Amino acid sequence: MKIHREKHRLDVTVSDLSGSRFDDVNLSGATYENVNMSGGTFHDINMSGWRVRNVNLSGLRIEDANLAGASLHGCQMNGMTIDGIEVGDLLRVWAEKAKPVGEAVAGPEVK
User: Which of 78, 91, 93, 98 is most buried as measured by Cβ atoms within 10 A of its Cβ?
Assistant: First the structure.
């Protein structure tokens, strides 16, 4: 199916749209629940203001992204790297530098 220069709201349920391509499309305000987007590619995308909850992002690779103001809460970060450096190692070094003189710090637990 080809949709070109149309303005519609779609309500898609229990469907297989695998292999679909979206180019120059406005999906702002769209809701995605129980969706399999594995293996997808996102390029030149505005995701500002997104809230992502209970998602599997294992193997995710983010390049050349603006992460200003981004926050992670209650996330499993084992094996996660930033510019090739393990996040757990970064947090341990930060905790060591941030501790008061003479106080032993085990470092934050990386989930």
Answer: 91
Q: DSSP readout, 53-92?
A: -S---TT----S---TT----S---TT-EETTEEHHHHHH
CA 95 – CA 55 distance, rounded (Å): 28
Q: How many Cα atoms within 13 Å fall on the side-chain side of residue 40?
A: 13
Q: The whole model's pTM is what?
A: 0.67
Task: Please check whether residue 107 is in contact with residue 92, taking contact to mean a CB–CB distance below 8 angstroms.
Answer: yes
Distance CA 94, CA 108 (A): 9
Nearest residue to 32 via CA among 21, 19, 47 = 47
Task: Tell me the pLDDT band of 99, cut-offs 50, 70 and 90.
Answer: confident
